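USER: If only I could read backbone structure tokens as easily as an amino acid sequence. It would mean a lot if you studied the pair and described how this chain folds. Here is the record:
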Amino acid sequence: MENFLSLNLEPTLIESLAKINFKTPTPIQAKAIPIALSGKDILGTAQTGTGKTAAFGIPLINFLLKTKKETALIITPTRELASQVMQTMNNLIGRGNIRSSLLIGGSPMQKQLKQMRRNPRLIVGTPGRINDHLKRRTLDLKNTSFLVLDEVDRMLDMGFTPQINQVLETVPRKHQTLLFSATLPGNILRLAETYLNNPERISAGPTSMPIEKIKQEVLKVKSGDKYNQLIREIYVRKGSILIFVKTRRSAEKMVKRLKYDDHDADAIHGNLRQNKRDRVIKAFRNNHFRILVGTDVASRGLDIPAIKHVINFDLPQVPEDFIHRIGRTARAGSEGSALSFVGDEDRGKWNAIQRLIDPNFKAEGGQRKGRKKGGRSFDRRGRRGKKRFDQRDDNKEKKFEKKKGFKFKDKKSFKKKGKFSKRRRDFRN
């Protein structure tokens, strides 16, 4: 498949693709679209930012244009991703006469009920809100012939397994399912074995490996010095920055501190109302402020080409989320950087991330007797258990073992930077 014109698509869809300047398919699109057009189920894996939405969106819209009564359902883990998928779908629909509805939490129920009374043929939504409509009987899936489950690993991590099972039990037995995930752990394989019909497995590149155009850096930090190090990194970097923290409270406190130090910033997290989240994302996309601070709600679903730098101020709880976090930069063929702060308390998380990226990775010094998996000691010279992670030798700062793909920053270059805050305020953790 060299171009979309060779696929015998509906004229309306070809027109839409030309209007949005879709010419050359990405690897995942080249693999997935012909299979999906043939009516087969798909179990697909791909890196974030590879064009996955169009990979399932093009055959889905083509299906709806060719049929009259059949409907399609797309389920995503987050509101942001659902909104962006809907935008892509509407672009693909173009002049096609296909009604659609977006069913997500945080959006007025009355507006959604009004949309549902118009009998939309395309539904995009999150698991919780879709199940709300199923319970209300305002959503009928009896004509659903095309089902897309996007970023299933994230949905299961978020606890949506019962909701996903409910949808799969409700849709007609005869339907086409496209399941996409960044990784394929055992629970997803079992789900696919139960509900998919002899699916074609496709993959576009190593899904656990970060995108090649991302410049990755690691900085060893002390917890009490993290914010000062962050300010230094902000000063030496140009372009937009996405900072990841653990919690909603952390995000709000971080924004407060950054604004106090004269940096334009705002936060996005799961507790924001949907209209507020939409305004923040739109403002960031339009360069109204430079720094966006987010929790893992922002690690998937945000498609903002302008993000130049991702900073993991706090490491993610789930190793796979690291891939999705850094995948917010280097979108659409552009270049970007990803910096991770790693402290003494993060060694277990960092080892888990390294093992995900490189299955052959072994933590320096191996595993000590009597420690649980992940609780490994680090040794600057590679000898087991001789030195603790936070020890120093000869008054020199220990460095993490250099691994392929990561550049380890030298803090000495910052010694003459001076102080970065003219004012002091008590910001307690």
Observations:
- The radius of gyration is 23 Å.
- The CA atoms of residues 248 and 271 lie 7 Å apart.
